Every structure is written in structure tokens, then in C-alpha cells.
Amino acid sequence: MNFDDILYSTEHGIATITINRPEVRNAVRPRTYEELTAAMHMAADDSSVGVVVITGAGDKAFCSGGDIRDQQERVPDAGRKHMRRLFALSSVMRMMDKPIVAKVRGFCVGGGNEINLFCDMTIASEDAKFGQTGPRVGSVPIWGACQLLARYVGERKAREMLYTCRLYTAQEAVAMGLINQVVEAGELDATVDQLCQDILDKSPQSVRIAKLALNTGSDQEFYASYFPTSELLASIYGNAENMEGITAFLEKREPDFRQYRGRRPAR
């Protein structure tokens, strides 16, 4: 597969996957998800690779989530296809028998934070910011955040993050257990590389079994929740409330979701 939206390289047992759309803060569109899935399969199938690093190009963002421009014309049928696309990426990330490390600079929000949740470990620079954006743009983070976030930060904090769409600093993220470590921006590459070397020094078969064992419980929760909620989310694509979030974002204004509270059905 020829890559347009990502970069892929391998060196000394490390596969590095870079979301390469810095002009839109590494927002992901359908092609990006498909390329990420293909790259993850390449890394999984390469016996010389022992650890995968995923990051974003530039210093503004790891990933700012889904490209809102792609969502303007999304309707339920297209939404269902999109849900299958998301599931394909998360499945290979979870089933891959090699650790995946997120290297985060800048914004890691929305779908970007859900990609972060599917990684095994996360190292962030001190300027990183984390959060979910679903209800702010008329959507729902059912691709990972609703299932996995509470396991990392606790249910109360997860609800706060999902319902309010607040952003959290890297220091707040490490304190709540969302990420592993915060370092100065200039130390990020070296710190991630040292973590990878630590992993590569260990027994690959032992690491493989440990990852699969650790995933067992949360996989059951994820799969049980994802399929029904993905259909629910797909079914609201394109309706007025969903489009208010998308249109407001594109028009650079605050959405007016209060108009949808207490509204009586039209006769």
C-alpha cells in the first residue's frame, strides 16, 4: 500500500508509524485510518520488529481526532462503514503481539486520544494536552473511550472527561493514570527510545503472552459494548443535532445544543 497520510519506517527492532498531516494537526480521515491499519499489520507481521512507536508529525499534535470536514456528509450507511474501519484498526492494535508506545507532542484529543488508549504505553512531552471531544461536536467516543478510559483514570474521572470535553495537561494526565510519563520536549525522543530498548531486551514470547493476558478482560468489555453502540452512533449521523456540532466547528462558533433539550416532537 502506498502511504499518503502516514510515514512508516523500521530500524533496529522498532517500527515507527507517524501520522503525517501536520497541516490539520494530524486529524485522521478514512484513508488515514486505513493506512494506519495497513502499517500496524506490517509491523505485526515483521518478525524483526519487537515494539511499535506511533506519533504525529510536527510539534502541534499527536492527533487532533477525526477530520471534521470528512464528517459533513456522513449519513448512517457511511457511518456504519466508518465503524467497521475503526474496528479494523483497533483490532490489529489490540491483537498485535508486540507493545505499542504512543509518543505524544501537542494535542491528543478525540479519536487521537482513543488511539492513545489502544496503545500499551504513552510518553508525552510537557506541552501535550489530552481529552475527548465527542459531545462538543455532536458525536460520541464509543471507539475505545467509553470502554477503556475508566480502566485507566477511574469511572468518575472518565465521566467528567466524556461529558464535559475538557482538556487536561500532560501533568494532569500522568497523575490520573492516563499516560506513563511526562518529559521535557527535547527529551521525548530519547526517553521513548530508551523505553523501546528496555522492551527489546526482554523475552519476546513472555512479552507477547503478557500483552494478550492483560488485554483479556478489557477486550471482553470493548467487544460487548462496541457493536451495539457503533450502530447507535451511526444511526444519528446526519441528523440536525449531529450537524449542529459539525457546522459550529467548521464555522468556528460555539454549538447551540440547548435548543435540543426539552423539544417536543413535531406533529
UniProtKB/TrEMBL annotation:
Annotated signal sequence range: none
The organism's place on the tree of life at top rank: Bacteria
InterPro entries linked to this entry: ClpP/crotonase-like_dom_sf, Enoyl-CoA_hyd/isom_CS, Enoyl-CoA_hydra/iso, Enoyl-CoA_hydra_C
GO molecular function, one term: 1,4-dihydroxy-2-naphthoyl-CoA synthase activity
Stored PROSITE patterns: ENOYL_COA_HYDRATASE
One GO cellular component, as annotated: cytosol
One of the protein's GO biological processes: menaquinone biosynthetic process
Pfam families to which the protein is assigned, alphabetical: ECH_1
Family as reported in the entry's similarity comment: Belongs to the enoyl-CoA hydratase/isomerase family.
Protein name: Enoyl-CoA hydratase/isomerase family protein
UniProt source species: Ramlibacter albus
Lineage: Bacteria, Pseudomonadati, Pseudomonadota, Betaproteobacteria, Burkholderiales
